[in-house]
């Protein structure tokens, strides 16, 4: 085993998110010889974020495959492999690089099950490191999740912590439907406990990350940590905020969110992607329908601006932060 690789999790360990995903991939590959990993530099290099570090050494070049720089070809090959009974896990090196494969994903991968009247399944996982906060150049800090959540036939999920990253990856691989697995790249080095004996929540269920009563903050992926920090800051001012980790953008667990909003009567949605036509727009509309007689303030949204992602020196102004979240909370509480 490579010295920098991650061994299977046999007991409770504190792991960074990246290592938790590595351990999860290793477990899935050990449990099922049909699980393959494909992508640019995923083998010898171990991926640009070292998420697949050590896997090619241990499982060989036939199961951890370094591909050409051709995203459409990578996804197209994964579709063919899935048709032959394999469970390929594809890495798109950065979020902004997925678009050459967009046609394959939305017109083939997402549609094949319906086109075949349910007779064909395509158990493909597409891993996409996404979001900003790492000081990267253009096309390396996008949040394109809404473009995929909008497409029928695709499941879209994003863990916010190491434990969820570990379990949700295995659940995604076990799914017979294609899953777009959005990995919050600026959380790769955040550590958390991973318990291999735990019973994981269903893949598309939301979780209450923090109990509260005055308002609900809902987020997924990289913004969950920001919301937890906002809730801690608000508590010092006497405001009790509940934080819901949505975990899944398609399908969305509206039931858990509805129960929270019926309790707190206010909702603030937070995501890195632009507010305009973002995931929060659908959630706001649906919760307004479901909770109209419970809401004491309009559903508010905090997110990126409707503009191209800025240069790294300006990304702190673009990304939602503690102050912007707390400002939205104050506006909700003022009604």
Describe this structure in words.
The chain has 335 residues and is an alpha/beta fold. The protein is 35% helix and 20% strand. It has twelve helices and 14 strands. Strands 3-2-4-5-7-6-12 form a seven-stranded mixed beta sheet, with helices on both faces. Helix 3 packs parallel to helix 4.
Task: Please render the helix and strand layout as text.
Elements: E1 13-16, H1 17-31, E2 35-39, H2 55-59, E3 64-66, H3 71-83, E4 87-91, H4 102-109, H5 112-115, E5 125-130, H6 145-149, E6 155-157, H7 162-174, E7 179-184, E8 191-194, E9 207-210, E10 215-219, H8 223-236, E11 241-245, E12 248-250, H9 254-264, E13 267-274, H10 279-290, E14 300-304, H11 315-318, H12 322-333
Distance between the termini: 58 Å
The strand line-up of the biggest sheet is 3-2-4-5-7-6-12
Order of helices and strands: EHEHEHEHHEHEHEEEEHEEHEHEHH
Give the beta-strand count. Answer: 14
Beta-strand content: 15-25%
Mean pLDDT: 96
Low-confidence stretches: none
**Compute the gyration radius: what is it?**
20 Å
Helix content: 25-40%
Global geometry:
globular
Count of alpha/pi helices:
12
* Overall SS class: alpha/beta
Oligomer: single chain
Largest sheet: number of strands, sense, barrel closure: 7 strands, mixed
């Amino acid at each position: 085993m490579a010295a920098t690789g991650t061994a299977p999790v046999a007991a409770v360990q504190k792991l960074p998110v990246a290592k938790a995903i590595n351990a999860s991939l290793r477990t899935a590959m050990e449990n099922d010889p049909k699980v393959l990993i494909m992508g640019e530099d995923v083998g010898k290099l171990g991926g640009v974020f070292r998420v697949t570090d050590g896997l090619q050494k241990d499982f060989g070049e036939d199961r951890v495959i370094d591909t050409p720089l051709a995203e459409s070809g990578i996804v197209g090959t994964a579709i063919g492999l899935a048709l032959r009974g394999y469970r390929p896990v594809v890495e798109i090196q950065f979020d902004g690089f997925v678009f050459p494969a967009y046609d394959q994903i939305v017109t083939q991968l997402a549609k094949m099950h319906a086109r075949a009247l349910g007779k064909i399944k395509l158990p493909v996982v597409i891993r996409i490191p996404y979001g900003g906060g790492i000081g990267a150049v253009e096309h390396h800090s996008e949040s394109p999740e809404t473009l995929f959540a909008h497409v029928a036939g695709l499941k879209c999920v994003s863990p916010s912590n190491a434990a969820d990253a570990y379990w949700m990856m295995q659940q995604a691989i076990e799914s017979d439907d294609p899953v777009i697995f959005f990995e919050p790249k600026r959380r790769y080095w955040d550590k958390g406990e991973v318990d291999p004996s735990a019973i994981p929540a269903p893949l598309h269920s939301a979780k209450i990350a923090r109990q509260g009563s005055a308002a609900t903050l809902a987020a997924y992926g990289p913004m969950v940590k920001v919301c937890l920090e906002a809730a801690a800051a608000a508590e010092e001012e006497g405001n009790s905020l509940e934080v819901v980790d949505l975990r899944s953008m398609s399908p969305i667990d509206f039931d858990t969110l509805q129960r929270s909003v019926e309790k707190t009567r206010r909702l603030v949605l937070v995501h890195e992607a632009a507010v305009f036509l973002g995931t929060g727009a659908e959630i706001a509309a649906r919760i307004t329908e479901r909770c109209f007689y419970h809401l004491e303030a309009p559903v508010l949204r905090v997110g990126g601006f409707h503009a191209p992602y800025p240069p790294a020196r300006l990304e702190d102004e673009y990304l939602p932060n503690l102050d912007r979240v707390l400002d939205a909370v104050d506006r909700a509480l003022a009604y």
